[in-house]
Amino acid sequence: MRRLVLTIALSVAAAATVLAQEPPVPIEDNSFLIEEAYNQEPGVVQHISTLLRARRSWAYSLTQEWPLAGQRHQLSFTIPIENGVGDLGLNYRQQVAGIGGGTAFAPRVSLLIPTRAGAGTAVQLNLPLSVVLARPLVAHVNAGATAMRGGMSVYNAGASLIWLARPTINAMLELAWTGDAASGEWIVNPGVRWAHNAGNLQIVPGISFPNGHDVFFYLSFEHPFKS
Fold it and tell me: Largest CB tally within 10 Å, which of 18, 172, 178, 217?
């Protein structure tokens, strides 16, 4: 644990050094469990990797987000890996509000394609809302549902509070719930994220501790894909 804390401290110190050397590009759409309502800017792609290390298991996912003819529309895909490749997610999100600033709202619909025999295709809807409370605090709220084969539904809800300590150093507290009509599970997830800006490339590592005993690692690369 001491080694992990030392690694985090050194990374934050490195981010502060970069911040002092060049104009900061702020962190915006890099939450962990709660979806933020900000689509990718035109001509910019984001590659997101996450790794959840629980006591006796681990789960990895890769997501790529691509703007579609501007910021209003966004396409993305998600590949989860946990004891093999999980259901592939094909996602479409529309920026209904928030282009250019202010309160943002970007509903997402996803098609979850099974990779295992006997599983069925599912459809997921999520409604992310992002609000600037009072600088330096930003809040994000999610509500959604997943409809699976056989009429079964799984619901999700949650919220997060982001403290913009610096443009490239943010602390966060997320609260996420997933379950059905009868029961569910809560996750409390405190964490930190920071950015390293190198020209047009922004690298955002992050770490959090779901319910105080697991470890969640985050890493994203964001860069232009055309001039």
Answer: 172
Phi, psi (deg, nearest 5) at residue 4? -65, -45
The answer to whether 64 and 40 are in contact (CB under 8 A) is no
Q: Which two tokens stand for residue 102?
A: 């202010």
User: Which phi and psi (to 5°) does residue 45 adopt?
Assistant: -115, 150
Question: What is the pTM assigned to this prediction?
Answer: 0.87
Short-list 126, 180, 162, 120, CA closest to 29: 162
Burial readout 61-79 (b: 16 or more C-beta within 10 A, e: otherwise): bebbbbbbeebebbebebe
What does the longest C-alpha to C-alpha distance in the chain come to? 56
In the chain, what are the domains?
Answer: 2-224 (2.40.160.40)
How confident is the model over 57-78, as pLDDT tens digits?
Answer: 999 999 999 999 899 999 999 9
pLDDT class of 16 with cuts at 50, 70, 90: very low
Residue 147 near residue 153, CB atoms below 8 Å = yes
Whether 11 and 183 have beta carbons less than 8 Å apart is answered as: no
The full DSSP string for 179-193 is E-SS-EEEEEEEEEE
Could you tell me if 30 and 204 are in contact, meaning their C-beta atoms sit under 8 angstroms apart?
yes
Bridge partners of 159, per DSSP, are 141, 175
